[in-house]
Amino acid sequence: MSFYAAPIARLIEEFEKLPGIGHKTAQRLAFHVLDMPQEKVDKLANAISEAKQKTKFCSVCGNLTDSDVCSLCNSEKRDSSVICVVEDARDVVAMEKIREFKGLYHVLHGAISPMQGIGPEDIKIKELLARIRDGNISEVIIATNPNIEGEATAMYISKLVKPLGIKTTRIAHGIPVGGDLEYADEVTLAKALEGRREI
Amino acid sequence: MSFYAAPIARLIEEFEKLPGIGHKTAQRLAFHVLDMPQEKVDKLANAISEAKQKTKFCSVCGNLTDSDVCSLCNSEKRDSSVICVVEDARDVVAMEKIREFKGLYHVLHGAISPMQGIGPEDIKIKELLARIRDGNISEVIIATNPNIEGEATAMYISKLVKPLGIKTTRIAHGIPVGGDLEYADEVTLAKALEGRREI
Q1: Which of A49, A66, A106, A167 is close enough to A139 for a disulfide, judged by CB 3.0 to 4.6 Å?
Q2: Strand partners, A82
Q3: Residue B106 and residue B128: Cα distance in Å, rounded?
Q4: Chain B closest CA to A6's CA: distance in Å?
Q5: A65: Cβ–Cβ under 8 A, 6 or more apart, which residues?
Q6: Distance in angstroms (rounded) separating the CA atoms of residues A80 and A99
Q7: CB contact under 8 A, A48 and B28
Q8: PROSITE patterns from the entry (chains A, B) (predicted)?
Q9: How many alpha carbons fall within 13 Å on the CB side of residue B116?
Q10: DSSP state of A183
Q11: Helix H segments across chain B?
């Protein structure tokens, strides 16, 4: 027998399914919901179902959007000749937050990973090549994650894009700003040395 | 300008309002929701609004329930001559988990706190006295929290209940099991000494 009335037990169970939310936190959240006024509870519940219903992938770049083409692809202020290739829609947000990049994005929705059975045809590489062929692209910046899958994907894409005569770059790997040389792992340090620039 | 499409930004905002959920966690939860199948998202959203809609307070003891009288008050296996007085419905769950107590509960929905302007008439003490007068009660166990408000409430209730000729007890304060004498605060240690029992 559960110690809670059925609707509360169900809510705790649902909260527990979310990442990083254990049983105690789920209980705390559930009781918080019970303490909230009905109107705020409905707002939360609506936000959850609407976020899923109203969000789709931009038909151009694959970013998350609530319209057919995302606000970045639609913007006239963006430089449409530069495409930054990322693995995930979250990475678009990370890039946008630095407020430095003014080009467009291409979201791959994954990275090549033979271990997990994800090949080049499973991620949006075809779509990227189509965009490059159709548009007037001057540079493709590959900003996949600096791990084995991300590097493999970056290599694969560069081998396809470079022959088209388009500048293909990879974001720099090195010591993070504020990081400590002493604690940097060897691969990162080696990459930092390799990528050194004249000052 | 938000970096997220409107429905996502709204969801992140709603998640951030929950206790213990910061901006980063709210983002992670929101993206998790977007990755979930629609049917599971709806289940979560429904659980949230239904928990609030369908839950009410038991008309007898004030515990959270989805029926008029809670399953504890309704149960024929419980000893209706003993009432355990707690501050909150969460405390009922904590007590039930030990599987030792077989009586009924009375939820006060708060504790007397002059600092916060909560007087005896603001919590369900009247209802407790009515239950005691109507029923055949042999013992009232006061299990309010061991802080100033809880102690004041316990004292107040015992002064009202004792003159009715009913055994009134307070749960023991002392060193928690598995605790360390060295690190116990003085008040707890003093209470533990005061409450010593012959072995």
Answers
A1: A167
A2: A139
A3: 7
A4: 7
A5: A55, A56, A57, A58, A71, B5
A6: 16
A7: no
A8: RECR (PS01300), TOPRIM (PS50880)
A9: 10
A10: G
A11: 6-16, 23-35, 38-54, 71-74, 89-97, 125-134, 148-161, 186-194
Q: How far apart are CA B16 and CA B161, in angstroms?
A: 44
Q: How far apart are CA A83 and CA B58, in angstroms?
A: 61
* Interface pTM, i.e. ipTM: 0.78
Please indicate whether, in this complex, the C-beta atoms of B47 and A13 are within 8 angstroms of each other: yes
Chain A residues whose CB is inside 8 A of the B36 CB are 52
Q: Which helix (H) or strand (E) holds A158?
A: helix A148-161
Inter-chain touch A38–B52, beta carbons under 8 Å: yes
Note down pLDDT in tens along chain B; length 199 residues: 578 888 999 999 999 999 999 999 999 999 999 989 999 999 999 999 999 889 999 999 999 999 899 999 999 999 999 999 999 998 998 888 888 889 999 999 999 999 999 999 999 999 999 999 988 899 999 999 988 999 999 999 999 999 998 999 999 888 888 878 888 888 888 888 888 877 7
Whole-number Å distance between alpha carbons of B3 and A199: 34
**Residue B86 phi, psi (nearest 5):** -125, 165
Which residues sit opposite B22 in a β-bridge?
none
Domains, chain B, ordered by start? 4-53 (1.10.8.420), 76-168 (3.40.1360.10)
Beta carbons of B104 and B78 less than 8 angstroms apart: yes
Of A20, A51, A53, the CB nearest to B30: A51
CB B62 within 8 A of CB B127: yes
Q: How many CA atoms lie within 13 A of B84 on its CB side?
A: 23
Q: How far is B198 from chain A (nearest CA, A)?
A: 34
